[in-house]
Specification:
The complex is a heterodimer. Chain A is mostly beta strands. Chain A has one helix at 83-94; strands at residues 39-41, 43-46, 56-58, 61-63, 66-68, 104-117, 123-138. Classes of the chains: A mainly beta, B alpha+beta.
């Protein structure tokens, strides 16, 4: 099951970290009408469940995360929206059947590394780019 | 998504969220897709499983240190070129920038070892042959190191200075000596003990150009006066040494271009 999101104390300094980047601290952010705004959710890929620990040395799995939530007008600052997404959501207000809302997608991805044995017992460390969602936004 | 005790891809399951059970074929497809994302053609099958083989051998120990350094860096998101491996007790770390910019690091353990010792005419040497079949396609070598452990060796030599040289066996001939290509040389006290790291990057240009898959390295030891010494007598350990001190090669690769996923 997903790890309980770590509840971090906001930094003392006045520049609050971007809510989208910290797992869990703003998990239950809702738009005024109760819909969930675009943000990052926990998703854990388990090599253990895949039965791969006979060749994967480390890690046993990794947190990939995913993005989900409404990109509805007004696009709050926390939604990491592009200018285009803001315009698109305005047009969607006027012509909902013609133009869809902007979509909630990763705005920053980072790498993860896997250490494993190959079939010749060589040990290989491979870096895989764009595997972990660092932040989400409306596009 | 998955079977058994948990699901392969675990997300926070809200009340009422139905989890679909995958069929056998779907499970295989899921595994194949994740392997493809990890850049693996198929599921590796090492001769004995990782769990049963505690990482006692030198290469896995070294690579585990490298993994922790790189994984720690990914979390900090400050991939600056600083000496990545701090506190690596057993072995001297490779230069930080080589590690953090590498896409793949391969430690090669499969090798054949051959000695020309005191039962043969001088010069004495020790030879290591590596199977490079696992060189990742579409990636270029940024650095390659040969690591060998030197124990104390015979006491009577301990005061003299040794010159240790590593050559690549460029070409072999039936009736005469092989063609050798000098890669690296080090000078040290005979009583020195610890891991020696030789830069063999220069040999890598031959691997990729000629697609040769067997790299031969030959090691010579000489004194200041040019006297050839048997590598084992000065404490250089080969495959018969303890597992945590056996020689191995480490090669750092960088993806030449963003890997294109095979269409299916």
């Amino acid at each position: 099951a997903a790890k309980a999101p770590r509840r971090r104390q906001p930094k003392k300094s006045n520049d609050l970290p971007h809510p989208n980047k910290l797992p869990g601290i703003f998990d239950d952010v809702h738009a005024a009408d109760g819909r969930q705004v675009c943000r990052r959710h926990e998703l854990y890929v388990s090599f253990q469940d895949l039965g791969w620990l006979d060749w994967v040395i480390a890690p046993q799995g990794y947190s990939a995360y995913y993005c989900e939530g409404e990109c509805a007008f007004p696009l709050d600052s926390c939604m990491n929206a592009t200018n285009h997404a803001i315009l698109q959501s305005l047009v969607h207000l006027m012509k909902p059947e013609a133009v869809p809302k902007a979509c909630c997608a990763p705005t920053k991805l980072s790498a993860t590394s896997v250490l494993y044995y190959d079939s010749n017992n060589n040990v290989i460390l491979k870096k895989h780019r764009n595997m972990v969602v660092k932040s989400c936004g409306c596009h | 998504w998955g079977s058994g005790s948990g699901s392969v891809l675990r997300r926070r399951l809200h009340a009422g969220f139905a989890q679909r059970r995958l069929s056998g074929g779907e499970r295989r497809d899921v595994q194949r897709e994740i392997l493809a994302v990890l850049g693996l053609p198929g599921r590796p099958r090492p001769r004995s499983s990782a769990a049963s083989r505690a990482p006692a051998a030198a290469a896995p120990l070294f690579m585990l240190d490298l993994y922790h350094a790189v994984a720690g860096e990914e979390e900090e998101e400050e991939a600056v070129s600083r000496p990545v491996l701090t506190g690596l007790s057993t072995q001297s770390p490779p230069p930080g920038s080589v590690v953090s910019r590498a896409d793949t690091v391969v430690s090669l353990v499969n090798m054949v070892e051959q000695d020309r010792d005191t039962s043969s005419p001088k010069p004495y040497w020790k030879e290591f042959r590596f199977d490079l079949a696992q060189v990742p396609a579409g990636e270029s070598v940024t650095a390659a190191e040969f690591r060998i452990y030197k124990a104390r060796g015979i006491a009577r030599h301990s005061n003299c200075t040794l010159h240790i040289s590593i050559y690549e066996i460029a070409a072999e001939h039936a009736n005469r000596e092989s063609d050798l290509f000098l890669l690296d040389t080090q000078q040290l006290r005979a009583g020195t003990e610890g891991w020696l790291v030789f830069d063999v990057t220069a040999a890598s240009s031959h691997w990729l150009v000629e697609r040769r898959y067997n790299l031969g390295l030959r090691l010579y030891v000489e004194t200041d006066s040019g006297l050839s010494m048997e590598p084992g007598s000065v404490g250089l350990l080969g495959r018969r040494g303890p597992r945590s001190k056996q020689p191995f090669m480490v090669t750092f690769f960088r993806a030449s271009s963003s890997p294109v996923r095979a269409t299916r």
